[in-house]
Design a protein that fits this description.
Order of helices and strands of chain A: HHHEEHEHEEHEEEEHHHEEEEE
Oligomer: homodimer
CATH architecture of the largest domain in chain A: 2-Layer Sandwich
Structural class of chain A: alpha+beta
């Protein structure tokens, strides 16, 4: 952890109380002058840090900017995810950035956030709108020991974790639309794009790209999306602390990734199923030119959707666009 | 096609006869002086081109160097594969080079050869020995519209094409060892490494890395491989024209890739099965820590191996190391 992250962690653990310069100096094993210089630097980033002779330093508020040290300090200890966090002000797509890191051998668990993306993308090359500081646009790198066909497990785990984190942080009741969308009252609020690099029988790495519409107001969505998409701000009626939500999501992702690695996909899938808006319903699935109708029954061991078709066959569905039948 | 490739094509189509400077000048629509300059350049690369006032230019021999223009001139018309050929004297791994091209948006069918690789690799990160000018070490880029799980079809097609090209060019009778090796008298002579980049339900691109031990003599194999590996030179007792073999392989790959794209995997699989040394035999398959014994029965629709285990179950096998039981 960097010095800034350690300072922020210490201030946060005081929970609104103060921490004296000498305490910080001891804890971090650097001079009080150096602490002072770092505090000044944090202030210049927008952190409101009070200093008083009696109470020491106190963190009053943090800016609505994502900042790697701040995210690390909020995150606390995780097993894999978020040990390495990088924040870009703007990039083409966080998936592209992390793919470069993956090829350079960066360890799994690395996370790349961007305050905005010029070429954010959804599934099948679709555009993903990512306006500056209105959402969480990030990607994480995983190197699971699994077959490519099992990678759907990771999308399932990410959806369960994302939905849980949103519920914990906002009190909203998000639902999962198979395979990769989080919806609230039928409108999309977050999505997951899973990309992988593999040999035939072995994943080299998986990239989970996650986009959450956090603080967009209705007018900030393009007209054609207003009936289909929403944001956490619209649903709760208030602005959401993006950094705190980001930390919550990373913690939940870390927890579910650990479960997948430990072979506990069934537990993850059970939780996923309890939040799923797709299972048990009659759906139409478009797969390229093909269209299949049926009842979404359950997930298979790899996380694929088992669909009971009108002819009574059970089909295994990996991707596609799902529409609920009225 | 470049001017050099056009000149070589014209000289080759004369089949040992000559082509006059004025014919070449007309065909290529450049001056006789320019033709002369290109011929001089080709000679400097090692092409033995005779020039006589009566017979014109005549290609006597080509050097044992891979040269993109030469490969293009030998290849003739293909549908997809080899329209874009690049030759490197040395590189880390041709798969790495073509992966960069893939991300830069290069069209499918591009082929990268290297005269030697410093970090050639086989399946599961294993090292692949690629000494200078002793073999064919190359990679090709495909962008098929398929699910990731169907990518095994491409390995199957490549193995069938590679085996056929070796048979056509050398008269040897190679066999295919599932999933990715070509063997002669039980010894490995060529291998295929399939790598893919994908979303969960859609391949973005597939890279086929192919290595063929062409002109290595027995002493050039590391001691520990001598019982396991062989070369076309060892098996035929003579040096093989690498460029001609390369063109043959690319033509056959082009043919089988077209069949896969046209949905004719069954035809490819039938041909593959007739050359397969694995099907119909009792085998042991090592998958990581796991080991499965059974009888290799056939391929499934995606190109996976169907194994009848000792307990009578039919298992679908995607990768692993296969050993024939005695």
């Amino acid at each position: 952890m960097t010095t800034d992250a350690q300072i922020l962690t210490a201030l946060r653990s005081a929970q609104g109380g103060g921490v004296s310069g000498s305490e910080l100096s001891q804890q971090l094993d650097i001079s009080r002058a150096a602490i002072w210089a770092r505090i000044e630097e944090l202030r210049s980033f927008g952190y409101d840090i009070e200093a008083s002779p009696h109470r020491g330093y106190r963190l009053v508020s943090a800016p609505d900017h994502l900042h790697a040290d701040d995210l690390l300090s909020r995150l606390g200890k995780t097993r894999t995810i978020g040990r390495d966090i990088r924040v870009f002000q703007e990039t083409t797509s966080t998936n592209d950035v992390i793919e470069k890191l993956a090829r350079d051998g960066v360890k799994e668990g690395a996370v790349v956030f961007a305050e905005s993306q010029s070429k954010g993308r959804g599934r099948l090359g679709r555009k993903w709108m990512s306006p500056p500081r209105k959402g969480l646009w990030f990607s994480l790198l995983l190197r699971p020991a699994m077959r490519p066909s099992a990678a759907t497990q990771l999308t399932i785990a990410a959806a369960a974790a994302l939905s849980r984190a949103i519920r914990l942080h906002t009190g909203l009741k998000p639902e999962i639309k198979w395979p990769n969308d989080i919806v609230i009252r039928g409108k999309k609020v977050a999505g997951i794009l899973t990309e992988l690099s593999a040999e035939l029988d072995k994943v080299k790495y998986v990239i989970l790209g996650i986009g959450v519409d956090v603080n967009l107001s209705a007018g900030e969505f393009p007209h054609e999306f207003r009936k289909l998409a929403t944001s956490l701000k619209i649903e709760t009626g208030q602005s959401i602390d993006r950094a705190e939500l980001a930390a919550e999501i990373l913690r939940e992702l870390d927890r579910d990734y650990a479960r997948i690695c430990a072979g506990q996909f069934t537990a993850v899938a059970d939780e996923w199923e309890s939040q799923c808006a797709t299972l048990g319903h009659n759906v139409v699935i478009r797969l390229g030119d093909r269209q299949i109708q049926g009842r979404a029954e359950s997930l298979d061991v790899d996380g694929a959707l088992l669909l009971r078709t009108l002819h009574g066959h059970l089909e295994t569905i990996i991707g596609g666009d799902v529409t609920l039948e009225k």
